[in-house]
Design brief:
Blueprint: E1 10-17, H1 21-32, E2 35-40, E3 49-56, E4 59-66, H2 72-80, E5 83-90, H3 94-103, E6 108-117, E7 120-128, E8 134-139, E9 152-153, E10 171-180, H4 186-196, E11 200-205, E12 216-223, E13 230-237, H5 244-252, E14 256-264, H6 267-276, H7 287-290, H8 292-296, H9 303-309, E15 312-316, E16 319-325, E17 336-343, H10 353-366
Parallel strand pairs: 1-4, 5-8, 10-13, 14-17
Antiparallel strand pairs: 1-5, 2-3, 2-9, 3-4, 6-7, 7-8, 10-14, 11-12, 12-13, 15-16, 16-17
Bound molecules: fe (ii) ion.
Residues 176, 178, 259, 261, 338, 348 line the site of fe (ii) ion (FE2).
Length: 370
Amino acid sequence: MSDDFLPINRVDHIEFYVGNARQAAHFYKTAFGFAQTAYSGLETGNRERASYVLEQHNIRLVLSSALSPDHPIARLAHLHGDTVAVVAVEVPDAAAAYRETTKRGATGAIAPMEIEDEHGLYRAAAIRLYGDTLMKFVERGKYRGPFVPGYTAVDYAGSRNAQGKPTGFGLMHVDHIVGNVELGAMNRWVDFFAQTMGFEQLRHFSDNDIHTEYSALMSKVMMNGNGKIKFPINEPAEGRRKSQIQEYLDYHYGPGVQHLALSTGNIVEAVTRLRNSGVEFLRVPSAYYQELEARVGKINEPVDTLAELGVLVDRDEEGYLLQIFSKPVEDRPTVFYEIIERHGSRGFGVGNFKALFESIEREQELRGNL
Ligand code: FE2
């Protein structure tokens, strides 16, 4: 798109604010196969916070904890529980991204800034996304450091891909980033992405598409100009019982990122390794697999292997996809993960929504929140 006023190269990183970044880093390393590549904390001269940078192929997570009770990181982790605080995208020009989006109505959070160190020139800026989440613009074209200024590289002995990134369990990219917003707020955020960020609407799921006997939600998917970045946005809908989106909002104390979908080229291997490392996934009833081939036709993967792992399948006119959803990865029923392998389909698994949401509701019921 030649008139793309907000060119985005990639998702640069996702930063979590957590209660104990050291222990969260251990979890993401052992359970999800990430490797630590950089660190900032007391030992590197950072008196305010500890931050661990974890990587796996093109996915970069940053886990941060404050070292004092009044630091904003401490306050937000206290309010929301462990939470996605920053969605950072790499752009060619951070100041331009800030200028173009604030001109179109975005609320500025970090005015354009730059830091020069021995690794080069780093520039960044940020605007406000839903809730307390920030959308950060990172410009690293002239920066060659391990992460951003203030971080030191951490040695990693495991296997690396051709780009020098840790290979871990074979999780490759952030496929999409899903936000939950309050009842009635979805279209405001759709407008934000459309008008402020220049994104297009890719999909719309109404409460007719996404409902069970008990509860419902609505969802719209926003995509940037080059199709690399997708932000589905959910809002709760009225149902007989509490929507899973409302449960999130109640425990997160406001809107925020609900799940990150991480793509892989081999979901059977990735999910086997994740399961063996202790990641817990949602299960659907075995009847799902008896009807599978009739619903989606021929696929490359053996259905009994998918059934054993609990991997779901959906097909649309462009191809098929394989996906599975973790249980929430913290005590509050908030953030969870999706693992996805795409074979042509650019969809989100609408054919799985009902089975999946019934599975989520069984968990909600166990928590006393349905
Ligand atoms: Fe998803």
